[in-house]
Amino acid sequence: MKLSRRQFGALAASSAIAFNHATTDAAETGPLETFVPCRAITRGPKNHWFGYYDKREFDPTNTLVLSNEVSFEGRSPTAGDTIAVGYVDTGNGDRWHEIGTSNAWGWQQGCMLQWLGDDGNRILWNDRQGDSFVCRIYSTETKKTRTINKPIYTVSPDGRFGLSADFRRIDNLRPGYGYDGLADPNVAVRAPADSGIWRVDLETGGEELILSLADVAAMPWPDGDKHAQAWHYFNHLLISPDAQRFIVLHRYRPEFDPNTLQFKGGFVTRMLTAAIDGTDRYVLDPSGYTSHFIWKGSDAVTMWTKPAGQKAGFYEFVDQTDQVRPVGHDKMPTNGHNTYLPSPYQDWILNDTYPDRKTRRQTVYLYHVPSGRRFDLGHIPSPPAYSGEWRCDTHPRSSNDGTKVAIDSPHDGGRQVYLLDIAEILKQG
Predict the structure, then answer these.
(1) E strands of 37-160, at which residues?
(2) Residue closest to 236 by CA, chosen among 183, 314, 294, 189
(3) Where is this region: Disordered (predicted)?
(4) What is the pTM (predicted TM-score) of this model?
């Protein structure tokens, strides 16, 4: 029997030294330090985490906090691995409410679990149904779940539509960010015309392919057309606050074997923005180094990158222009998962770091843009077992009122969700 890449990874993990919570021994990591009130809102024996930093985790009351739940750690998920999805009621003793399950998930972004719109009545996540990836939409009023026949990557602020990408292709070319279980019919095609980004109506389920991989592969490159022979995919989509444009990272790998699903070397990135129908495309960052990003309003993007002739750092790019300026280089010198707090605290950037080399601690912090001041919220240990695809980044997420921050952390016997209170720090802004 031929093993898939993920089946092989799972077998290797089970036969290697057991992944266990003894790796949280403080001798292997620096100590936990927090500088604001911090508490766990989930608990074992199962593990809990939310995933990515640009999804809405809190309901409008800021008391219901979404989370995934899983019974294992330390290996890639396979098609047979099911997680529970639900929320923690922080207004009622942190009670856990399960609302469904998913067979379409990864350690970094979970199953795209998120609240829809501003009414607090709908929750969305991705799942697998038969030979398709789909999304589920749960009603907190009726307790019923309906299905949309496309998985969703990002949703409009009002929750009326979302954008979908091909998670089968992502799984091949960026393991850990796609979903296992379904073969990519275009695995041997470098830039397929029928794969790309779809706009999906979350009320009717109607869908339209608005940007294909063939479209972007054909866009001019500054250094010629050699990239046309690479293997192209899309990753990291985000709709603007006014729902008029979206960001997508167009990535490619120069070498990929469609028979073995193996690739050599890294990937190259260019950031595109486009109108919400896929037209009016603009290469905002052609550097090849674009990493984490967030919209600043609806006409600018703050991102970690390395523009031509500049050092790596956070920069603000004005959409559809060549205007670029550095942001917080002295206080935010390393890559992290950056967002802006909501109004009235939109001058604050919420960010984190990866584990440092000596103590393996991740720092969660706030940066006040007008004053240039940085406030560390905590240094969070990340044991060595949490590395690679199943690492546990803190991925800080703000509540809707900006006064609380949720993070994922494995520092105390498995990954769990923690809540930090930042209200007092914001008074200093």
Answers:
(1) 38-40, 47-49, 64-70, 83-89, 95-102, 114-116, 122-129, 132-139, 145-148, 154-155
(2) 294
(3) 388-410
(4) 0.93
